[in-house]
Amino acid sequence: SKAAAALAAERRFIAEERKASAELRASAEAAAAGVSERLLQIEEQAQRLDAERGELAAALQGLTRERNNFAREQREAELALSEAKELMASAERLMEEAREKLRALEAKERDLERERRKKER
Question: How far is CA 18 from the centre of its chain?
Protein backbone atom coordinates (compact mmCIF):
# COMPACT_ATOMS: atom_id res chain seq x y z
CA SER A 1 0.00 0.00 0.00
CA LYS A 2 2.97 2.24 0.67
CA ALA A 3 4.27 1.23 -2.70
CA ALA A 4 0.89 1.98 -4.28
CA ALA A 5 0.81 5.40 -2.60
CA ALA A 6 4.38 6.10 -3.77
CA LEU A 7 3.46 4.98 -7.26
CA ALA A 8 0.34 7.22 -7.25
CA ALA A 9 2.45 10.16 -6.01
CA GLU A 10 5.00 9.47 -8.75
CA ARG A 11 2.20 9.39 -11.36
CA ARG A 12 0.79 12.71 -10.08
CA PHE A 13 4.29 14.23 -10.21
CA ILE A 14 4.80 13.01 -13.80
CA ALA A 15 1.32 14.28 -14.78
CA GLU A 16 2.06 17.68 -13.25
CA GLU A 17 5.46 17.77 -15.01
CA ARG A 18 3.79 16.88 -18.33
CA LYS A 19 1.18 19.58 -17.76
CA ALA A 20 3.87 22.14 -16.85
CA SER A 21 5.92 21.02 -19.86
CA ALA A 22 2.87 21.33 -22.16
CA GLU A 23 2.11 24.80 -20.76
CA LEU A 24 5.74 25.80 -21.30
CA ARG A 25 5.68 24.43 -24.84
CA ALA A 26 2.41 26.30 -25.56
CA SER A 27 3.90 29.47 -24.09
CA ALA A 28 7.07 29.03 -26.16
CA GLU A 29 4.99 28.41 -29.32
CA ALA A 30 2.91 31.53 -28.61
CA ALA A 31 6.10 33.52 -28.07
CA ALA A 32 7.56 32.09 -31.30
CA ALA A 33 4.35 32.99 -33.15
CA GLY A 34 4.61 36.54 -31.73
CA VAL A 35 8.24 36.74 -32.79
CA SER A 36 7.32 35.45 -36.26
CA GLU A 37 4.54 38.04 -36.53
CA ARG A 38 6.93 40.80 -35.42
CA LEU A 39 9.55 39.57 -37.92
CA LEU A 40 6.91 39.76 -40.68
CA GLN A 41 6.03 43.32 -39.62
CA ILE A 42 9.71 44.29 -39.60
CA GLU A 43 10.18 42.73 -43.04
CA GLU A 44 7.15 44.61 -44.42
CA GLN A 45 8.46 47.84 -42.90
CA ALA A 46 11.89 47.18 -44.40
CA GLN A 47 10.26 46.66 -47.83
CA ARG A 48 8.30 49.93 -47.45
CA LEU A 49 11.47 51.76 -46.42
CA ASP A 50 13.33 50.23 -49.36
CA ALA A 51 10.58 51.39 -51.73
CA GLU A 52 10.70 54.88 -50.19
CA ARG A 53 14.47 54.89 -50.55
CA GLY A 54 14.04 54.00 -54.23
CA GLU A 55 11.53 56.84 -54.67
CA LEU A 56 13.86 59.26 -52.89
CA ALA A 57 16.80 58.13 -55.02
CA ALA A 58 14.72 58.70 -58.17
CA ALA A 59 13.65 62.13 -56.92
CA LEU A 60 17.25 63.00 -56.11
CA GLN A 61 18.29 61.91 -59.59
CA GLY A 62 15.56 64.12 -61.04
CA LEU A 63 16.72 67.07 -58.95
CA THR A 64 20.33 66.49 -59.98
CA ARG A 65 19.24 66.42 -63.64
CA GLU A 66 17.27 69.65 -63.15
CA ARG A 67 20.21 71.30 -61.38
CA ASN A 68 22.56 70.27 -64.21
CA ASN A 69 20.09 71.51 -66.83
CA PHE A 70 19.72 74.80 -64.96
CA ALA A 71 23.51 75.21 -64.74
CA ARG A 72 23.82 74.51 -68.49
CA GLU A 73 21.03 76.96 -69.30
CA GLN A 74 22.67 79.55 -67.04
CA ARG A 75 26.02 79.10 -68.84
CA GLU A 76 24.25 79.39 -72.20
CA ALA A 77 22.46 82.55 -71.04
CA GLU A 78 25.74 84.06 -69.80
CA LEU A 79 27.36 83.25 -73.16
CA ALA A 80 24.42 84.79 -75.04
CA LEU A 81 24.64 87.90 -72.84
CA SER A 82 28.37 88.16 -73.51
CA GLU A 83 27.76 87.83 -77.26
CA ALA A 84 25.00 90.44 -77.07
CA LYS A 85 27.38 92.85 -75.28
CA GLU A 86 30.00 92.28 -77.99
CA LEU A 87 27.37 92.92 -80.69
CA MET A 88 26.26 96.11 -78.91
CA ALA A 89 29.86 97.34 -78.71
CA SER A 90 30.33 96.53 -82.38
CA ALA A 91 27.09 98.31 -83.25
CA GLU A 92 28.18 101.36 -81.24
CA ARG A 93 31.51 101.44 -83.14
CA LEU A 94 29.67 101.18 -86.47
CA MET A 95 27.26 103.96 -85.42
CA GLU A 96 30.20 106.18 -84.44
CA GLU A 97 31.88 105.47 -87.79
CA ALA A 98 28.62 106.28 -89.58
CA ARG A 99 28.33 109.59 -87.61
CA GLU A 100 31.89 110.48 -88.53
CA LYS A 101 31.21 109.74 -92.23
CA LEU A 102 28.00 111.77 -92.04
CA ARG A 103 29.88 114.72 -90.47
CA ALA A 104 32.51 114.45 -93.19
CA LEU A 105 29.83 114.37 -95.89
CA GLU A 106 28.06 117.36 -94.31
CA ALA A 107 31.36 119.25 -94.22
CA LYS A 108 31.97 118.40 -97.91
CA GLU A 109 28.45 119.49 -98.72
CA ARG A 110 29.04 122.85 -96.96
CA ASP A 111 32.35 123.25 -98.80
CA LEU A 112 30.67 122.52 -102.12
CA GLU A 113 27.88 124.98 -101.29
CA ARG A 114 30.50 127.68 -100.47
CA GLU A 115 32.31 126.95 -103.75
CA ARG A 116 29.04 127.21 -105.68
CA ARG A 117 28.22 130.57 -104.05
CA LYS A 118 31.70 131.90 -104.82
CA LYS A 119 31.26 130.91 -108.47
CA GLU A 120 27.85 132.59 -108.62
CA ARG A 121 29.32 135.87 -107.49
Answer: 63
